[in-house]
Amino acid sequence: MNMKAGAAAVTLVAALLTTAAPATAADDERTVVEAMQALLATRDDSLVGNEFTASATVAAGTDARFDNGWGYDGRGDIINYGIGNDAAMVVGLQTDIFESPTAYNWRAWDLGDPAWVGPTAILWQIDTNGDLTADYLVFFFNVGGSVTSAVTPTSDPTNILCFASPSWDAASGYFSSFARSCVGNPASARVTAYMYYETRFDISE
Fold first, then answer.
1. What digits encode the pLDDT tens for the residues 113-127?
2. Count of helix runs (H) and strand runs (E) in the chain
3. For the chain, which terminal residue's Cβ has fewer other Cβ atoms within 10 angstroms, N or C?
């Protein structure tokens, strides 16, 4: 791990420890489900892997820079990701270059811009029973005019179990916090992260 990546990982872990518990969310569920379907259609399942165990506290992992495809863009290049499994469950992710999820590249698909194939979004996959297979998905995107996060079972990925509380910060990245009961109150969990980032000219994932 280089020093820049190491410092970023420390910042991510600190943020995971301090992210607030989820608040009640109310969103346009039909729009959210459509965004889920569009994101799932873009996903490359071969990227699943590199899970890190979290038991009662926090675990984080790093990802190499410049590895996110032909349309490379640092705003879609994951460098750190992690999970906190304490009073609430929190998942987090950092990119090489931060962009607010309120920016146009996050909103264009939802606004109907024909240049966008899918929604710029983050997807965390969580394994709660230790079999190295994702049991739950956590979506993070901008739909219906607001940044939204939702948790679903992998077996039925558009069945919303609960809405989560999304947050973001230029120094530490993107986060989603939700009640542990939403995913069965697991004693431990493993996480991997995927990001789809699109501009008018390129797709980076």
1. 999 888 899 999 998
2. 3, 11
3. N
